[in-house]
Design goal:
Elements lengths: L34 E8 L3 E8 L7 E7 L7 E4 L3 E4 L1 H11 L3 H8 L2 H4 L4 E2 L3 H4 L3 H21 L6 E12 L11 E15 L2 H5 L5 E6 L8 E4 L15 H16 L10 E7 L9 H16 L6 H12 L9 H8 L5 E5 L4 E5 L5 E7 L14 H18 L4 H4 L9 H9 L7 H7 L7 H8 L3 H4 L4 H9 L5 H22 L5 H21 L6 H12 L4 E5 L6 E7 L3 H18 L8 H4 E4 L6 E3 L2
Parallel strand pairs: 3-5, 6-18, 9-11
Antiparallel strand pairs: 1-2, 2-3, 4-5, 7-8, 7-18, 8-11, 9-10, 12-13, 14-16, 14-17, 15-16
Helix pairs in contact: 7-8, 7-9, 8-9, 8-10, 9-10, 11-17, 11-18, 13-14, 18-19, 20-21
């Protein structure tokens, strides 16, 4: 097979540096000795540059994929005139072995990532003024009172809060390594916490984690041993498992840093959440993040936002979902007034100021989607399908079989796809997808014959992936890859539209169009919509939304709609009439709860510790 004789032990030298482009570059009729950059496609970890001689559009071309991150590249020969950087694959192997994660994070982490999770002494610092502050004051007072009733012996030592989020664009691509564009909601999860009396432990008492919820009818009180090494019981989907994930994450992070975790410490905990559950706005991640920073602060520790974002992403996987890092990153790194472009490897965030004339309305389809419960057939299945698509592409594009096993995501092979496209006068990785992945579903046997690998053996390290293999009959590789690559480009098209300098009306029209395209891709290629979401999107568009799409994992949950800011009240009333009224009449929801199911939101601030 092509490329099987490649080696990384004696790599050829990298191509010579490219000349800086100039504004007076000669056109295509100039001397044959001139070279130009036909395609300069910046991707997340590497830059793909396709160089073509101006006098030869068909034969004399060379393609190089050059790493732009974390030091030297590893070059291997691919074909006669192409060099492929396999640095990403080898670096991925190092990350999984834990060899280079922290040093790389320090090099790439921006100032915002280095900031510690903030600590405030007043609710005004978090909730501002007006009705939001009044609501927060009453809520925290009730939380304090219930904590004292449950646990006695004084008040909570501190509170933590972490917001939910709405993803504006970039669905199901964070776990593939691609950037996303969410904003934080004002809706948050608050954790009140207090360390248990040390004398109790000294007297022979086993420290415990007592975890209660203000809504104890829906979320009964749970207790766990204060042992960070304990497993999370994936088969028992109790709500407090999310607190346990955050608790474990703090100690796992300490261990990874080589710090002493000390003797077991018990905690009394009370949780109050107003992030809609199972609605695609990250109620689970808000609980994991608020739990992690509560434990962190109660132990007298301080970690950066980036640190918490990264370990919270990892520790939430104890619940059984192979999630990406978007939810945790925006919950920790959000700033009021701006959305965030979230990049990964490592996690970092940059501001995206949205047009003032636009507003985002979030509406709940009332169909609950619980990722952890249906992971094997839905969320985790998509993660596995994407990995298999990436591996098949790697083989078809000539990657050596000894490297294919280490391919994890579609971003791992985008460089190969771009090189393939560049040789065919294109800059789209979708060209390789259409050429090398057939549209019909793949069987496990067909994939194994292509990869020359046993899928159970390949996935042996991941119990959740093995569950997918046991449940799935077919794998839709073409459609999943098509969605990921096209959605990744829509994220930057969205960001570029905001920064284009065009009129606000033109910008909002473009943003709405991109949101509509995203929803169509989620529905048709990723198959993560449902009848209720489709009905709600249709109602939004019929009532003047510039764009509307499902947000979150899908299969239920919420829709986010872009509307003119001046029409928000009338738009919300239209949704209440055309979508929610029939649900009220049927008794599915109460009219007095409508504001919990449909609301407008501005970008809000991120996680914080409160010592009141």
């Amino acid at each position: 097979m092509a490329g099987d004789d490649r080696t990384v032990s004696t790599p050829p030298p990298p191509p010579p540096p490219l000349p800086e482009p100039t504004s007076n570059e000669p056109d295509s009729s100039s001397s044959s000795s001139s070279w130009r950059i036909d395609t300069f496609e910046e991707v997340r970890v590497r830059v793909v540059v396709v160089l073509r001689s101006k006098h030869s559009r068909s034969s004399q071309k060379s393609t190089a994929i050059r790493s732009t991150s974390f030091g030297s590249s590893n070059w291997i020969r691919h074909g006669e005139d192409r060099l492929i950087d396999v640095g990403r694959i080898s670096r991925s192997r190092q990350r999984r072995a834990g060899n280079s994660h922290r040093s790389r994070g320090r090099r790439r982490m921006g100032a915002a990532g280095r900031e510690a999770v903030p600590t405030f002494a007043s609710l005004e610092d978090v909730y501002g003024q007006g009705s939001s502050l009044l609501e927060a004051q009453g809520r925290y007072q009730r939380l304090r009172q219930k904590f004292c009733e449950l646990y006695g012996q004084g008040e909570p030592e501190l509170y933590s809060r972490a917001p939910g989020r709405v993803n504006l664009i970039g669905e199901h691509i964070d776990y593939e390594g691609y950037s996303v564009l969410p904003m934080a909601l004002l809706h948050d999860t608050v954790v009140a916490i207090r360390r248990q009396n040390a004398s109790a432990s000294a007297s022979g008492h086993i420290p415990t984690l007592n975890v209660a919820n203000t809504d104890d009818d829906r979320f009964p009180r749970c207790s766990f041993p204060a042992d960070p090494s304990q497993d999370v019981d994936r088969a028992n989907h109790v709500w407090a498992n999310y607190f346990l994930c955050g608790y474990k994450g703090v100690f796992e992070h300490l261990q990874a840093k080589g710090r002493d975790v000390g003797p077991p410490v018990g905690f009394d905990v009370l949780v109050d959440g107003v992030v809609p559950i199972g609605a695609g706005v990250s109620s689970s991640s808000a609980l994991v993040c608020s739990s992690a920073i509560a434990v962190m602060a109660a132990l007298g520790l301080s970690f950066s936002k980036q640190e918490v974002s990264e370990f919270a992403c990892v520790c939430e996987r104890h619940i059984g979902t192979q999630s990406g890092g978007m939810d945790q990153a925006i919950s920790l790194m959000a700033d009021a007034g701006v959305a965030k472009l979230i990049d990964f490897d490592p996690i970092r965030a940059s501001d995206v100021a949205l047009p003032p004339k636009g507003a985002f309305v979030i509406a709940n389809s009332l169909t609950v989607s619980t990722k952890a419960v249906s992971a094997a057939t839905k969320y985790n299945c998509r993660v596995v399908e994407c990995r298999l698509a990436a591996m098949v592409l790697a083989v078809k594009l000539g990657m050596a079989h000894e490297l294919v096993r280490d391919v994890r995501t579609l971003s791992d092979v985008e460089g190969l796809c771009m090189a393939y496209a560049g040789e065919r006068d294109s800059s789209s990785p979708l060209l390789a997808v259409k050429a090398h992945l057939h549209g019909e579903p793949y069987s496990a046997q067909e994939i194994e014959s292509i990869l020359r690998l046993s899928l159970p053996e390949l996935m042996a390290h991941s119990p959740s992936s093995l569950e997918v293999l046991a449940a799935a009959e077919k794998f839709h590789l073409h459609d999943r890859a098509d969605h990921v690559y096209s959605e990744a480009r829509r994220v930057f098209a969205f960001r570029d539209a905001v920064q284009s300098g065009d009129s606000e009306d033109a910008t909002l029209t473009r943003l709405g169009s991109l949101m509509d395209e995203s929803h169509a891709s989620c529905r048709d290629l990723y198959a993560c919509s449902c009848a209720e979401l489709e009905e709600l999107v249709k109602v939004c568009r019929a009532n003047g939304a510039l764009g509307a799409r499902l947000t979150g994992a899908g299969w239920g949950g919420c829709v986010v709609a872009l509307v003119d800011a001046g029409s928000v009240p009338s738009f919300i009333q239209s949704l209440k009439r055309d979508f929610f009224r029939s649900r009220i009449d049927s008794g599915a929801i109460r009219e007095q709860d409508l504001n919990d199911y449909v609301f407008a939101s501005k970008p809000s601030g991120g996680a914080a510790i409160l010592k009141l």
